Amino acid sequence: MKLLVVGSGGREHALAWKLAQSPRVQIVYVAPGNGGTAQDERLRNIDITDPAALADFVERENVSLTVVGPEAPLAAGIVNLFRSRGLKIFGPTKEAAQLESSKDFAKAFMKRHQIPTAEYETFTDAAAAHAYLDAKGAPIVIKADGLAAGKGVVVATTLDEAHAAVDSMLADNKLGDAGARVVIEEFLEGEEASFIVMVDGKHVLALASSQDHKRLLDGDRGPNTGGMGAYSPAPIVTPQLHARVMREIILPTVRGMEGEGIRYTGFLYAGLMIDAQGNPKTLEFNCRMGDPETQPIMARLKGDFSKVVELAIAGTLDSAVLEWDRRTALGVVLAAHNYPETPRRGDRISDIPAETDTAVTFHAGTTLADGKLTTSGGRVLCVVGLSDSVRGAQSVVYDTVNQISFDGMQYRRDIGYRAVNRKQNDRHG
Ligand code: AMP
Ligand code: GLY
């Protein structure tokens, strides 16, 4: 069978790589793909991004099913369009994708269904927002309602910063329509984890737990990015916490959406903040898999993923089982010069070590032209290493990273440090 993955990042490379391992899959098209998906013989890039043109392609080429990577096509209704043409696709409809595409929708939904999350208010009027900030004080969090490609959240440690964020979104319109409405919410303390599940409208299948590293620099310093590295499993998500997140967050979300007449299908990603007592709250929902979380998660997934996606599209996810490699997978993102501000493009990338049983490199912002691989985006590559321990995975991954180079390459050297610290604390306490 032939499959299609929509998107061009590291997440999509990892999804396509995994799907292509199925003996029944001949080819996975990736639209538009990147320099890595261009090199893999089981994958083929197609230079189409328009959803209607993609549906035409799927009909013409008899593609059996489509998996959508990023949020933008989902929020634009690619699932609605494919379904209206009788094409099999895994992802949420435009209506269901509002859990990510509108923070106000997500917050009001969580409130209606008593799903644990930070206290909040929504504003369109700058004066009212400023007054609310003064009443609440800092630290406080300001979020653009709409999709803002990772630039929509300001965690303000001072009231000055908070007022400036409100002005930039509501008064100066810096984020356009996405920032014409803002959510202002309580600052939550704790440790974050990514909780990602597959949903078929009714049934839920949890993927392995993971943890991202959002800041650019070691020790979680520097600006927020799309994610500088991730590993799976995340030891903070104990079996008890897993059960609680399913019971208090995931299942009420899926049932709540169904009850409101918006069946949720697709990947559902709850970004969690877990406080010192181990209580989880929902920071945000994403209607897709995480990037870079997907890369270590797919590296650990065993079996035929195409069958699981097929069951999900058919609404019979209750009969699917996922098997995981017991090892820890740890992914380190290699980013371009000047990421996340204005990443430089066009730097030549050295040879990348071939995939082994313990290391695989997924591409994101890369382009292959005339046999030469160059950088073409902020997050360029994600190297994943597998080992029995987090430290072991770090050692495999950084050994591989040391064999790769391009001008301006920057990466964190401490991915997985929380899991390492946790292990040490467990031993000593
Ligand atoms: P988001 O785009 O919603 O994932 O937010 C980006 C990052 O901002 C999150 O990963 C958190 O690190 C941080 N963040 C978001 N909401 C809060 C909050 N209520 N309290 C503390 N940090 C937050
Ligand atoms: N890694 C964070 C995200 O995908 O939203």
UniProtKB/TrEMBL annotation:
It holds the Pfam family GARS_C. One of its GO terms (molecular function) is ATP binding. Its cofactor is Mg(2+); Mn(2+). InterPro entries: ATP-grasp, ATP_grasp_subdomain_1, PreATP-grasp_dom_sf, PRibGlycinamid_synth_ATP-grasp, PRibGlycinamide_synth, PRibGlycinamide_synth_C-dom, PRibGlycinamide_synth_C_sf, PRibGlycinamide_synth_N. Residues 107-314 form the ATP-grasp domain. The keyword Manganese applies. Pathway: Purine metabolism; IMP biosynthesis via de novo pathway; N(1)-(5-phospho-D-ribosyl)glycinamide from 5-phospho-alpha-D-ribose 1-diphosphate: step 2/2. It comes from the Bacteria. Its EC number is 6.3.4.13. Belongs to the GARS family. PANTHER family: PHOSPHORIBOSYLAMINE--GLYCINE LIGASE, PHOSPHORIBOSYLAMINE--GLYCINE LIGASE, CHLOROPLASTIC. HAMAP family: GARS (MF_00138). This is Phosphoribosylamine--glycine ligase. It comes from Caballeronia telluris.
